[in-house]
């Protein structure tokens, strides 16, 4: 199968890295060089662990040293306390760290961006103080004379190299697995645009929690190894302290977060540099390491904020970001092929059919107010299955607020929304998406660093668990909108029209029953408007109900079956287009109170 | 426990809190106007401590005066740092990525300052032997350490001066306007980028002055920043990110919390109370006690 | 005084304006009407300097101001009363007005300006020490207008002053604009959605639709042209 082959091919570079590290292990002779190698491997692993939550998921954590320290302390205390071999203690440490991740993550992920980062600062500080207080200022690992290997004590420094390498290899494999799995797509999507990810069916909270747990375990393991290989005496500052997170940050940010190679690159460059500096001039200039790290962070943020790995990649000629296996190329052929693709994309087993004309969405007395502004007041209407319903109204009428309520970004103050006669108000957007409601945005919300195909795959994962099948579904969706030729480019190079098509494709990949389109025609040329309208009709003909907000009136009246008119948050009109645009209340809402009288006077 | 003892803890906490308050105002101003979380704030304070120390030891300048003398040079330093470094990461673009970039940049700056100071001035702690550091005023049963009392008064004075600047001068109001609505501020002829530089300069000058005041009773060493930066963050968040009076109140409150924690926990755990308060505020009221939305005053 | 030639602006990834040309003579009152998405606000923002122009020229008093940042344009005497008012919420009413007269030319005449504005909007005088955030929508609009006047502007840009306001308040705002016009001949460029109210105030007008000028003419010609409705509702 093509997907599995690709995934295996991805393991080759990991194998190369392992071989290089092995070679170094056996080529290097001096004890000191082995120490540097061990440190490189240790910090690369820690960087990879941090990368899972802060690189892939974009949730910058300043507290990852909490897990590092937990791993170190649990393992060492178990040795000291109950003579448990650290080989098992490692596991206990990892489990403890995962539990800590759950305890920390649950409350902290509710916080956005900078508040999250600041909050993560506090945990290692608290742990450090407690360890001090509990009397564990210095926990020395007892030297074991008989069977030292059982207690992770080796005289040959190469053993520690191999130990760290094993941890590194494991974390690389974990990263690789994440990158190519459904979780990886979910994380990258929520990093690039959390709202769009939610609307495309990604359970962002759950994804963050899983990523956090997966990032805690390797950090704990490597913390335990660090304690045994380097420290020998564990102090709170050495494992919970600032220097740990600084090392991690430097390694990842200089190297480049968001990929497995960045932390490796960063560790390979920065650790030997700082160790050499420390060894040569560290006595005369204490603190040189800190200055170098600080300077590295500043320079990277100024000149290559994404890190060296991405900077170098950016310099190389453009190539595919994901080597896609040879899949079935569905050309944007005549309408027949596209229609077939459309049906493939929107096919969902087990969905009970609705009678045409039945109410798919029932909006009941929805009201929503913001500070002093009544965005929506007592709005009620129904969307019938199989129709194209237009929502129009002058600026500030509440149209986008209505959509935000329908798809779960906002909860109404009063009233409810029912979908297939099930109450959906109060559900998270990803849950509503899973039930069959898709959404596009007024300003296209793409995932800029993913290719067009990958963007659409994020939606496809709602219906498929396996990456290959998600890719197939995504290709079908792209074919349905006629964008498959652009599958491998990034959204930044698309025209507005194509961007809109991509968003529709992403929506279709979730196999919706109903799509909310927010101003899909804005800013398009006449041809673009015609093409988009044709697509909307095709989508409806394939069985998807469409609700569309639009301003481009000449197009709207041709496209929709019925119209709902909002003004100042109230529904002021509803009916077929021909009637609605002649409705005096509607005309007044658009052109001002005095327009009609004025026109009357003109005629007189 | 006697009431007198409780009052003693409260008073000590407030005195210490006054200096925390001054430190925090600088951080709040910078965040309010520029949306920058300045990790290096504590390090500029440390530099202020050293400047005051050298003025005291070399020229016999009383540290309370030294704190004032520190203001102009650090203001200029702030302007320079803003122009050279921060301008590049506070322009347009994705706000989330920018937040991350300036957090890391200021963290890097902090590392450089701390470690360069260690390199040049050595880690040896120093102290200013002010006569009044070991004397106290007696108000009834309560003892007020003289150094802390003078520092507290100076902190109040400086905070008051900042407040007057922000509320009574055109420039100060322009700063607040730029914090509220940068686009509209531009329409009034306010150069928002220059306002950023001004805010940063004032923020650095304030925290350096706070360092000078702190030097009257606290040992001076390169790593002193670490102890205070988290306290400053907590104070600013407590008060509502970006609110100046909020940060002032937050600083006082942190001093109180720190002091009162000693009633129930041993000395080593003094800061645990502060960190727990931090987490509680972030979870239950992230906009802080005074914040409704982000603003400078 | 203001001459816009073939202005094109991309905004939020869309082509908001495509080759718009218009001009405003000193002392004139020009109105631009049109439906949502027509690009009216983008046009004003391009003139005020908060949105960059992709192509075309913007000349103020014969000088190309395209490269000037917004605060520099404000200092030249261009006052922009933005869409959604954007008063400074944590400043008092008085402080907001003081900021309106931030530029040196206006600062010298601040007392005179305050007299005028508070006379025009007595409710602002009552609330002078209140925070701007606590004002109602209509009061905020008055404040934004007043703030614009405090700049002693040569060119006043008004962006949809009626937006989000109830009908009676809107009448009051338009009356105030008419009064301003009568008492001093400031050059005014008004962007509005409400056709009759806005056109009645002006000397000349333009109708914008999807980034292009579709109709123009003097006040009476436009008012007599029922085709304006077509631009809004397609019929």
Could you give the topology of this structure?
The complex is a heterotrimer of chains A (604), B (297) and C (235).
Chain A: H1 2-27, H2 31-56, H3 65-82, H4 86-108, H5 113-133, E1 139-140, H6 157-180, H7 182-192, H8 194-199, H9 204-231, E2 233-234, H10 236-240, H11 242-255, H12 261-281, H13 288-303, H14 308-315, H15 335-345, E3 359-370, E4 373-384, E5 388-392, H16 399-406, E6 414-419, E7 422-423, H17 429-435, E8 437-439, H18 452-460, H19 467-481, H20 496-509, E9 514-518, H21 526-541, E10 545-549, H22 553-559, E11 562-567, E12 570-575, H23 577-580, H24 584-591, H25 595-603
Parallel strand pairs in A: 5-10, 5-11, 8-9, 9-10
Antiparallel strand pairs in A: 1-2, 3-4, 3-6, 6-7, 11-12
Chain B: H1 3-34, H2 41-59, H3 63-69, H4 71-84, H5 95-121, E1 136-139, E2 142-145, H6 146-168, H7 170-180, H8 182-187, H9 192-214, H10 224-239, H11 244-264, H12 270-284
Antiparallel strand pairs in B: 1-2
Chain C: E1 2-11, E2 14-24, E3 29-33, H1 40-48, E4 55-60, E5 63-64, H2 70-75, E6 78-81, H3 93-100, H4 104-108, H5 110-120, H6 122-126, H7 137-150, E7 155-159, H8 167-183, E8 187-192, H9 195-201, E9 204-209, E10 212-218, H10 219-223, H11 227-233
Parallel strand pairs in C: 3-8, 3-9, 6-7, 7-8
Antiparallel strand pairs in C: 1-2, 1-4, 4-5, 9-10
Helix pairs in contact in C: 3-7, 5-7
CATH superfamily of the largest domain in chain A: P-loop containing nucleotide triphosphate hydrolases
Largest beta sheet: strand ordering of chain A: 8-9-10-5-11-12
Individual helix count of chain A = 25
Structural class of chain A: alpha/beta
Largest interface: A-B, 40 and 45 residues
Give the class-level CATH name of chain B.
Answer: Mainly Alpha
CATH topology of the largest domain in chain A: Rossmann fold
Helix content of chain A: 55-70%
What pattern of helices and strands is seen along the backbone of chain B? HHHHHEEHHHHHHH
Q: Given the C-alpha coordinates, what overall shape of chain B results?
A: globular
| Percentage of residues in DSSP E strands of chain A | 5-15%
- CATH topology (level 3) name of chain B: ABC transporter involved in vitamin B12 uptake, BtuC
User: What is the rounded distance between the termini of chain A?
Assistant: 77 Å
Low-confidence segments of chain B: 293-297
Strands of the biggest beta sheet of chain B: in what spatial order?
1-2
Domains of chain A (count): 2
């Amino acid at each position: 199968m093509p997907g599995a082959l690709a995934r295996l091919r991805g393991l080759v570079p990991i194998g190369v890295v392992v071989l290089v590290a092995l070679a170094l292990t056996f080529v290097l002779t001096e004890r000191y060089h082995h120490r540097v190698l061990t440190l490189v491997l240790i910090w690369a692993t820690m960087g990879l662990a941090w990368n899972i939550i802060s690189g892939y998921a974009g949730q910058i954590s300043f507290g990852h040293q909490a897990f590092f320290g937990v791993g170190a302390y649990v393992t060492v205390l178990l040795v000291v306390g109950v003579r448990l071999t650290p080989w098992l203690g490692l596991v206990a440490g990892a489990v403890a760290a995962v539990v800590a991740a759950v305890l920390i993550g649950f409350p902290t992920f509710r916080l956005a961006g900078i508040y999250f980062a600041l909050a993560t600062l506090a945990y290692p500080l608290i742990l450090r103080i407690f360890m001090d207080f509990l009397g564990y200022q210095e926990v020395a690992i007892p030297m074991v004379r008989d069977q030292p290997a059982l207690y992770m004590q080796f005289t040959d420094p190469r053993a520690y190299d191999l130990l760290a390498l094993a941890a590194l290899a494991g974390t690389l494999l974990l990263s690789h697995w994440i990158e190519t799995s459904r979780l990886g797509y979910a994380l990258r999507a929520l990093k690039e645009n959390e709202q769009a990810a939610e609307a495309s069916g990604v359970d962002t909270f759950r994804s963050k929690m899983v990523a956090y747990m997966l990032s805690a375990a390797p950090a704990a393991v490597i913390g335990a190894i660090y304690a045994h290989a380097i420290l020998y005496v564990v102090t709170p500052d050495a494992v919970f302290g600032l220097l740990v997170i600084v090392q991690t940050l430097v390694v990842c940010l200089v190297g480049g977060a968001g990929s497995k190679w960045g932390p490796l690159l960063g560790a390979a460059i920065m650790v030997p540099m700082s160790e050499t500096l420390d060894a040569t001039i560290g006595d005369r200039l204490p603190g040189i390491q800190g200055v170098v790290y600080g300077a590295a962070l500043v320079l990277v943020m100024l000149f290559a904020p994404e890190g060296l790995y991405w900077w170098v990649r950016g310099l190389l000629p453009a190539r595919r970001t994901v080597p896609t296996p040879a899949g079935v190329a569905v050309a944007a052929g005549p309408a027949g092929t596209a229609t077939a693709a459309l049906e493939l994309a929107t096919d969902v087993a087990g969905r009970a059919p609705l009678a045409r004309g039945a109410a798919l969405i029932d909006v009941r007395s929805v009201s929503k107010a913001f500070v002093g502004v009544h965005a929506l007041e007592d709005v009620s209407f129904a969307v019938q299955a199989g129709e194209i319903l237009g929502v129009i109204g002058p600026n500030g009428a509440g149209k986008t607020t209505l959509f935000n309520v329908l798809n779960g970004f906002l909860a109404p103050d009063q009233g409810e929304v029912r979908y297939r006669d099930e109450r959906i108000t109060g559900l998270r957007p990803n849950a509503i998406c899973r039930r069959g409601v898709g959404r596009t945005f007024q300003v296209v919300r793409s995932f800029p660093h993913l290719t067009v195909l990958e963007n659409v795959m994020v939606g496809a994962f709602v219906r498929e668990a396996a990456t290959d099948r998600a890719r197939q579904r995504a290709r079908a969706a792209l074919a349905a909108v006629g964008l498959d030729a652009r599958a491998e480019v990034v959204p930044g190079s698309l025209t507005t029209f194509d961007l809109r098509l991509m968003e529709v494709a992403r929506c279709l990949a979730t196999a919706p029953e109903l799509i909310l389109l927010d101003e899909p025609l804005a800013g398009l040329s006449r041809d673009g408007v015609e093409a988009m309208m044709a697509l909307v009709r095709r989508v409806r003909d394939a069985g998807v109900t469409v609700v569309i907000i639009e301003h481009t009136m000449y197009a709207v009246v041709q496209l929709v079956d019925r119209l709902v008119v909002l003004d100042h948050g109230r529904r002021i009109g509803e009916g077929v287009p021909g009637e609605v645009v002649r409705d005096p209340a509607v005309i007044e809402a658009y052109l001002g109170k005095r327009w009609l009288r004025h026109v009357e006077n003109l005629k007189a | 426990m006697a009431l007198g003892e409780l009052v003693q803890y409260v008073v000590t906490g407030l005195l210490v809190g006054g200096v925390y308050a001054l430190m925090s105002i600088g951080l709040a101003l910078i965040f309010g106007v520029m949306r920058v979380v300045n990790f290096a704030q504590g390090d500029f304070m440390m530099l202020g401590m050293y400047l005051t120390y050298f003025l005291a030891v070399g020229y016999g300048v009383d540290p309370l005066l030294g704190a004032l003398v520190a203001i102009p040079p650090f203001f200029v330093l702030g302007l320079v740092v803003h122009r050279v470094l921060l301008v590049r990461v506070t322009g347009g673009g994705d706000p989330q990525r920018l937040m991350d970039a300036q957090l890391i940049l200021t963290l890097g700056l902090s590392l450089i300052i701390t470690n360069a100071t260690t390199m040049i001035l050595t880690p040896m702690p120093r102290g200013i032997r002010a006569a009044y550091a070991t004397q106290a005023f007696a108000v009834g049963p309560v003892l007020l350490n003289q150094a802390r009392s003078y520092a507290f008064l100076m902190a109040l004075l400086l905070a008051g001066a900042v407040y007057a600047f922000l509320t009574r001068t055109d420039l100060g109001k322009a700063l607040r306007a730029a914090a509220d609505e940068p686009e509209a501020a531009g329409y009034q002829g306010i150069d928002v980028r220059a306002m950023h530089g001004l805010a940063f300069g004032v923020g650095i000058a304030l925290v350096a002055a706070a360092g000078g005041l702190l030097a009257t009773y606290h040992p001076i060493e390169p790593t002193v920043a670490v102890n205070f930066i988290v306290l400053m963050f907590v104070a600013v968040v407590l008060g509502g990110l970006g609110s100046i009076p909020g940060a002032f109140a937050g600083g006082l409150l942190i001093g109180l919390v720190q002091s009162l924690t000693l009633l129930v926990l041993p000395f080593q755990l003094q800061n645990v109370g502060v960190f727990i308060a931090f987490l509680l505020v972030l979870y239950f009221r992230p906009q802080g006690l005074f914040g409704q939305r982000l603003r400078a005053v | 005084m203001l001459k816009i030639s073939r202005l094109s602006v991309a905004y939020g990834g869309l082509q908001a304006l495509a080759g718009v040309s218009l001009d405003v003579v000193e002392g004139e009152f020009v109105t631009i009407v049109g439906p949502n998405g027509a690009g009216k606000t983008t046009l004003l923002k391009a003139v005020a300097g908060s949105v960059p122009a992709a192509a075309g020229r913007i000349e103020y008093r014969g000088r190309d101001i395209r490269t000037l940042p917004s605060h520099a344009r404000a200092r030249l005497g261009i006052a922009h009363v933005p869409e959604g008012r954007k008063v400074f919420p944590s400043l008092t009413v008085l402080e907001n007005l003081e900021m309106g007269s931030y530029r040196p030319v206006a600062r010298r005449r601040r007392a005179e300006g305050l007299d005028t504005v508070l006379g025009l909007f007595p409710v602002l005088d009552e609330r002078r020490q209140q925070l701007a955030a606590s004002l109602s929508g209509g009061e905020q609009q008055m404040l934004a207008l007043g703030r614009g006047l405090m700049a002693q502007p040569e060119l006043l840009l008004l962006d949809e002053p009626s937006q989000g306001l109830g009908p009676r308040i809107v009448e009051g705002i338009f009356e105030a604009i008419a009064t301003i016009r009568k008492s001093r001949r400031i050059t005014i460029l008004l962007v509005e959605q409400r056709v009759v109210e806005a056109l009645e105030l002006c000397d000349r007008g333009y109708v914008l639709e999807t980034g292009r000028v579709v109709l123009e003419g003097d006040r009476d010609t436009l008012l007599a042209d029922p085709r304006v409705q077509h631009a809004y509702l397609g019929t």
